[in-house]
Amino acid sequence: MTERIWDRFLTEQDRLHLDMSRHRQIGFGARPVLLLIDLYRWVFGDKPEPLLEAIKSWPGSCGLAAWEALPHIQTLLAAARRAGIPIVHVTGLGRESGVAGWNRTSVPPADITPEVLDRQRRQFDIVDQLKPLAGEALLHKASPSAFWGTPLIGHLNSLNADTIITCGESTSGCVRATVVDGCTYRFRMVVVEEGVFDRTQASHAINLLDMSQKYADVLPVAEVIKYLEEQRAKKPPE
């Protein structure tokens, strides 16, 4: 059996329990949507840096984990665009909205420099490599779940969607919250393993396990792209 990212964190009892469990995949549906969660500057910073260095300038950074996931997400996004499936980008709601969010990093007044203000201004800008194209939905949220306080459910219903392919960050936070809500709404939830990331390696791995056991199919990017190519092949010629 192929080793999974969470295996090294499991106890012997965990391993035996998983071996004995009759877990089945949910499977893809016929009407997928790609949902990209919180792929903004705050978690990438301006350049690849190890986590403990990156957080000195960008307190919300996920360090190199974000940059390592980036090419996989780019590949996935390109495949989704070729397949012509709907794409939804989700980012944070900035301070200028006047709405109090769930995860505001406080900076002491004495430490607010022009550089800090500039980073705060850009924190929810989706990184250039993943910018939405014309016609792709862009939603702003003020809570962990992409469903809470946004028109996402209405948009998905208007598309008659049945499958949500998910990537972004953080695995243990906004991705998980969105996946749980999506499962609650009875969508087929798919988490792209190489396309999600977190600040804590253990949280990342164990939350992937938890989602795979309860709420979603956690699949390698190659398997998801294969499905998208099949969707592309089904499209009528233009």
Short description:
The chain has 238 residues and is α/β, with parallel strands linked by helices. The protein has helices at residues 12-20, 41-44, 51-54, 64-83, 114-122, 152-159, 171-184, 201-214, 221-234; strands spanning 32-37, 87-92, 137-141, 163-169, 188-197, 217-219.
Outline the biggest β-sheet. 6 strands, parallel
Q: Give the helices and strands as they follow along the chain.
A: HEHHHEHEHEHEHEH
**Backbone structural class:** alpha/beta
Q: What do we call the CATH homologous superfamily? A: Isochorismatase-like
Q: What is the CATH top level name? A: Alpha Beta
CATH topology (fold) name: Rossmann fold
Strand arrangement in the largest pleated sheet? 3-2-1-4-5-6
C-alpha-based Rg, rounded? 18 Å
State the helicity in percent bands.
Answer: 40-55%
